[in-house]
Structures are given as structure tokens and as C-alpha cells.
Write a structure and sequence with these properties.
The protein is built from five helices and eleven strands; from the N terminus they run H-E-E-H-E-H-E-E-E-E-H-E-E-H-E-E. By secondary structure, the chain is an alpha+beta fold.
Length: 277
Amino acid sequence: MKRKVKKPIIILIILIGLVGLGYSGYRILSWHKSNNHTNEQIEKVETMAPQEEVEAPATDKTVDVVGEPEGTKTETKEDPYWDYINLPLTSVDFTELLKKNSDTVAWLKVNGTNINYPVVQSKDNKYYLDKSFDKTYNASGWIFLDYRNNMQNLSDNTIIYGHSMLNKTMFGSLRNILENNWYNTASNHTVTLSTPTENTLWQVFSVYAIDSETYYLISKFGTEESHQKWLNEMLKRSQFDFKTTVSTKDKVLTLSTCKNGNRRVVLHAKLIKRQAR
């Protein structure tokens, strides 16, 4: 004979289900609200910050060419560096951006992704995890520079973070760098970074996914030996071969975002050209 389920238990089950549905609905609404706010902010910063490509061949006297591959040009002629150093730079007008948010330190553009945003910096690496460019609360956060770094005086490793948003905003499209289509397009292998004082070009040398750790996030090295060991490890990790070298003389740019929980998507690039503004 079947036992009758007590009425209080049925009510409890229904209540738990309703709470679950309510929470799910709340999360969906919050997600849409954050996405809409982020899209609004992106549209605003694009209108505030006119961009232009600046032709800056390596022979230009105003250009500082760095990051030359180890060995003679004849020995390293296959390194795409020799083509990349003649690529144009991206120059951004920061006047209105700085009026809107004085934390603005740069503008980052990554070819083959949707990343084309201003970069901000706070006194810690928490503030912009849930703040938009206008400093209002937003779960999408914003693209931000590690608090240990200084765009006016580059560290051994300059680090920029962003959330991996499902709608491909912020660093949501950084995962593209792990796809063959991205790698097979050579023009994707450079990153431009514009600041109020200079425009810079960076050559990608490593991309990979890894479990969460802090080793790739070291910003300064105590010895040349530990520095070179780190560089060798970053090269070794790369999912693709970018056919270039990197040494302790190079300044490195690191982009980092989440991938499926505890995993991280990482890009490393070396500085190859800079031009004062």
C-alpha cells in the first residue's frame, strides 16, 4: 500500500522550486542588464575617443624600433618581426575619456577579436571586476591594468585583465586566439596599445589556456636568469609557433581572462615599436 506524501512536504518542494525559478529569473535579468549597460558604455567610449592609424615605418626618425630577434637579420629573416615593424600604429584621442574617467591609462586593440577598448587602472585588482567604465556597478566589469604596472614606465611584464563575457564583450572574444582561423591570419599576430604619451606595437609570441596560477602574472624579475627562465616557459606553453624569439631585453604585454571556471586564456606579446605623441 502506497504511503501518502504529507502535505507540508509537498508545499516545501513547491516553495523550493519557486525560489529556484525566481533566482534563475533574477540572474537572467541581471545578466541582460549588465550586458545592456556594457554595450551602452562601449558605444559612448567609441564616440568619445576618435581613433586613427598612424603610418610609422621603421625608418621614421620619430619611431623607436625595439625587440629585434636574436641573431643577425639574415639569420632571422623568417621572423615576421621584420614585416611587423613597418605596420601602422593606433592613435587615440584621450581628452574626453580622461574627463569621463581619470583612471584611463591606455587603449587596447587586439586584431581578430572584438577587443578595442580603453584600459583603466585602480589601486587594486578588484575595483574594476564589477565596475564599468563610468564606475557604476556592473557584473561585466571593465578592462583594467594590473595595479603594479605603470604605462609610463613599463615593467618586465605589463598585465591587462578582463572578464570573458558570453556576449563577446570585454575579453569574451580573447578565446579566439586559440582557434586555427585566428592563428592562420598573420595580421592577427600584433597588438596595438595607445596611451596619452605614446603609441606602441606588440608582436604576439605565445597564446595558451592553463589552470589558474600566478607564475605568468609576475611583473618584475629579480635576476636575469629567473627572467629568461620565465620567458622560455611562456614560449614553451604556446599552442602555436609564432616563429619569433624573446629575450630579457624585451618588454612583455600579457592579456588574461577566464575560460570555463578555473582555466585561463593567456596572450603574451613583446614590444617592437613605440612612438612618442
